Amino acid sequence: MADGRPVVALESTIITHGLPRPRNLAAAAEAEALLRDAGVVPATVGVVGGRAVVGLTGAELERLAAGERVEKVSVRDLPVVVARGVDGGTTVAATALLAHRAGIGVFATGGLGGVHRGAATTFDESADLVALAGVPILVVSAGVKSILDVPATLERLETLNVTVLGYRTDAFPGFYVRDAGVPVPARVEDAAGAAAVVRARDALGLRSAVLLANPIAAEAQLDVGEHRAVLDAALARAAEQGIAGHDTTPFLLDHVHRATQGRSLEVNLAVYRGNVALAGEVATALSGPRP
Ligand code: PSU
Ligand code: MN
Prior knowledge:
Layout: E1 7-10, H1 13-18, H2 23-37, E2 41-48, E3 51-54, H3 58-66, E4 71-73, H4 78-84, E5 88-90, H5 92-101, E6 106-108, H6 119-122, H7 127-133, E7 138-141, H8 150-159, E8 163-167, E9 186-188, H9 191-203, E10 210-213, H10 224-240, H11 248-259, H12 263-287
Parallel strand pairs: 1-2, 1-6, 4-5, 6-7, 7-10, 8-9, 8-10
Antiparallel strand pairs: 2-3, 2-5
């Protein structure tokens, strides 16, 4: 950062809770390699032995990926894991906060958290949304997972003053599928377009995040009909088993994974690669001279 090189932050809940072993460590290493090959410095964020780390070493990544008792750490959990001196994978909310604190402006994730279905009664809305309202960073995400209430998530992002950009799309993506059925408020055609919006936000003195919604490639998305059926089954199973709170996302993801015989995992990894690559391009555009 001191040399003005582009830096991209990466979250670690995707490693500790989002992907099964051993693919989790492979995906984490691949994301970092992809950035390095593009001349971008990766900074994976996590908590190691109670220390919030921005820029995990290879050994620290391995430790989090293999750990038996690694906490899922959102912002509210940070003080607890730090005080206890334990390990944690940071969510989008906690990662965005820590990365920004370290001066990083661009962050890649697979899927952002959002408003859960039934939130009108459970109040289960990811802290990712509120965090983005107050952290001036750009997050690249394939929209939000269709396990969530996508229209409600977009409504909340609007309320929270988060700028949402579709990357070469008019449709907000549903992670596994290109189109979640809701339009994006604005679109950009390239990394330079996204960088221009970030610069404008900063010039305006706004403190909220820009969400760059990057859909999966058409040929890589889950079959739309299969996606619908698997999703309905996963939601029904979660309701039957009374899954709630921060266990909901990992439970649903695991169900979708098994019901698609692992194909959702390949989609997940393809989505992540695409987002990491795009974040690298935006960080590079932002590190260059102003147009
Ligand atoms: N979406 C995914 N995979 C994930 C997550 C979200 O496709 O692993 C993780 C992210 O770290 C996100 C967190 O920040 O789940 C949101 O969890 P919650 O809904 O409990 O806030
Ligand atoms: Mn929640």
